[in-house]
Design brief:
The chain is α+β, with helices and mostly antiparallel strands and 606 residues long. It has five domains: 193 residues, P-loop containing nucleotide triphosphate hydrolases (Rossmann fold), CATH 3.40.50; 93 residues, Elongation Factor Tu (Ef-tu), domain 3; 81 residues, Alpha-Beta Plaits (2-Layer Sandwich); 83 residues, 2-Layer Sandwich (Alpha-Beta Plaits); 76 residues, Beta Barrel (OB fold (Dihydrolipoamide Acetyltransferase, E2P)). It starts with a strand and ends with a helix. 42% of the residues are buried.
């Protein structure tokens, strides 16, 4: 069959996974009576819970005599490592843009990678049936974005369609018949070139590995596009590292090809097709799988460097080992090394002593997803505050800067600009009306200034603001940036929290715990209303006497506590604090549990 390889790229929640659902249905990949979950490509539990795509996944549909291999890519820049590898496998991209929101920061990130590779995009204006859709404005903004990213004349001459992924239609004109997605299928076949590798069928076999995973039955498997030649199941090939070093020689035990949502075994892999190989024991991402006669590896796409680091350590609190089964540093290290092998955007280094590990990555969301996966696997961890990675160039210290795009109600724009450009040392780039009483603000803000800002932003905008951020570049160090302004309430006793004690402590600040929660000395149980830390006793019960008097039996009515998500907790803590993560709990604590040690460390720091 004729082959087309495409990737669908879009900002978070612009509807690309829903569109893939409809492409699969209308191509006949499902039976008429087959039960299919919504957003079928989001197979990971966390993806379904959060409604975002985290892992790039492949699928395949047939349209007439053409097989279209489709890659569903993550929309968030924190998972950009997935995007950068996957784009090297495809020959074209479908850029999905919300007709109401227009191109957003993550759209810009993925599109810049696609344009740099010389791919010619197809633009699909999605959700044009929404009441606030402005497809003409969105189309003009896409053109301006391409021009700003340095697109060639050929890339600027892009075809576009109007669509509604949820309703399952796409048309060349806005007033088209709105029946099905045939217009998109036909445009992909006509506009996206066939893989150039098809002309190299007679050459020796070569394939660049782009994703690594494991199958419980066939073991380690690698996925990539066949660059040249053919490969039969059972043949012997070798793996070359990026430097040309021979890693291993192995027999290909199985070749799998994507057919619909699943994979099926095939006997022959041909140049241009996307396949999965099994049988290797050492080969990994960015390695070249090739014929035994070849010695030169394929060039691998460079990956953007990490921008933040987080320290993963063992849980050494008094409650350690009660929830999780995997608590040893050796087990934690093995799990992190496996993650670094699969995810090329993560780098893991040992710290002195071997009890903790420095994990560098793209952003807080990426770290949060890794930690969430580990806690679900039974790990107990202590996590430090994210630290920004600096760079030295020509004797000057540089720090990462992010482009922040904010849509906020007009009445809150003043406080948002004041927070970003004041204490957080950002630079305002653009401010314009976004329609329906909203303002769009674009600013360049140091990554340090954005750690922990999300919660403050939602409070300032009464929960109505939308904030998107993307790595922009490097800038000279902007000096100290103020962190959290409030102090914390620290437990000075071990035991279970008492309702009466928490009721009396409410005037001191907000609580993070409820009655009967286990607490220990050094654990953070609330936020102080002032800027200093305060040791308190959450176990102090009411003194009982045998004398009854009016006013002594007041009812205890507690204010609901502040319950933080994992990402919120990691962003909230200060440099001398940790997040204790177990399968059943997320707790905050001081790095040094002993009060005398805390005071000594505080004096040493000052």
């Amino acid at each position: 069959m004729d082959i087309r390889n495409i990737a669908i790229i879009a900002h978070v929640d612009h509807g690309k996974t829903t569109l893939v659902d409809e492409l699969l249905k209308q191509s006949g990949a499902f039976r008429d009576n087959q039960a299919v979950a919504e957003r079928a490509m989001d197979s990971n539990d966390i993806e379904r819970e959060r409604g975002i795509t985290i892992l790039a996944k492949c699928t395949s549909v047939e349209h007439g005599a053409t097989r279209i291999n489709i890659v569903d890519t993550p929309g968030h820049a924190d998972f950009g490592g997935e995007v950068e590898r996957i784009l090297s496998m495809v020959d074209g991209v479908v850029l999905l843009v919300d007709a109401a929101e227009g191109p957003m920061p993550q759209t810009k990130f993925v599109t810049s990678k696609a344009l740099a590779l010389g791919l010619r995009p197809i633009v699909v204006l999605n959700k044009v049936d929404k009441p606030d859709a402005e497809p003409d404005r969105a189309l003009n903004e896409v053109f301006d974005l391409f021009a700003a990213l340095g697109a060639t004349d050929e890339q600027l001459d892009f075809p576009h369609l109007y669509a509604s992924g949820r309703s399952g239609w796409a048309d060349v004109t806005l007033d088209g018949p709105r029946e099905n997605l045939d217009a998109l299928f036909n445009l992909v076949v006509a506009h996206v070139p066939a893989p150039r590798q098809r002309a190299a069928l007679g050459q020796p076999f070569r394939m660049l590995a782009t994703t690594l995973s494991a199958d419980p039955f066939i073991g380690r498997i690698l996925t990539g596009r066949v660059e040249s030649g053919t490969l039969k199941a059972g043949e012997t090939v070798k793996a070359l590292s990026r430097d040309g070093e021979k890693l291993e020689q192995f027999r290909v035990s199985k070749i799998l090809a994507f057919r619909g949502l699943g994979q099926q075994a095939i006997d022959l892999a041909e140049a241009g097709d996307i396949v999965t190989l099994a049988g290797m024991s050492k080969a990994t991402v960015a390695d070249t799988i090739c014929d035994l006669t070849l010695d030169i590896p394929l060039p691998a796409q460079p990956i953007d460097p990490p921008t933040i680091s987080v320290t993963f350590g063992i849980n050494d609190s008094p409650l350690a080992g009660r929830d999780g089964k995997k608590v040893q540093s050796r087990v934690i290290r093995e799990r992190l090394m496996r993650e670094a092998e699969v995810n090329v955007a993560i780098k893991v280094t040992d710290t002195p002593g071997g009890e903790a590990f420095e994990v560098a990555g793209r952003g807080e969301l990426q770290m949060g997803v890794l930690i969430e996966n580990m806690r679900r696997e039974g790990f107990e961890l202590s996590i430090s505050r994210p630290q920004v990675l600096f760079r030295e160039e020509n004797g000057q210290r540089l720090e990462p800067v992010e482009e922040v795009t904010i849509d906020v109600d007009d009445e809150f724009s003043g406080v948002v600009i004041e927070k970003l450009t004041g204490a957080r040392k950002g630079d305002l780039v653009e401010m314009k009306p976004a329609g329906t009483g909203k303002t769009r603000i674009i600013a360049h803000v140091p990554s340090r200034g954005l750690i922990g800002y999300q919660g403050e932003f939602l409070t300032d905008t009464r929960g109505t603001g939308v904030l998107n951020r993307i790595f922009h570049g490097w800038t000279p160090h902007k000096g100290p940036i103020q962190g959290r302004r409030q102090g914390v309430l620290i437990s000075m006793e071990n035991g279970q929290a008492v309702a009466y004690a928490l009721w009396n402590l409410e005037e001191r600040g907000k609580m993070f715990i409820i009655p009967q929660d286990p607490v220990y000395e050094g654990m953070i149980i609330g936020e102080h209303s002032r800027d200093n830390d305060l040791d308190v006793n959450p176990l102090k019960g009411k003194k009982l006497t045998n004398v009854r008097a009016s006013g002594t039996d007041e009812a205890v009515r507690l204010t609901p506590p502040v319950q933080m998500s994992l990402e919120q907790a990691i962003a909230y803590i200060d440099d001398d604090e940790l997040v204790e993560v177990t399968p059943n709990a997320i707790r905050l604590r001081k790095r040094f549990l002993d009060p005398h040690e805390r005071k000594r460390q505080s004096r040493a720091a000052s």
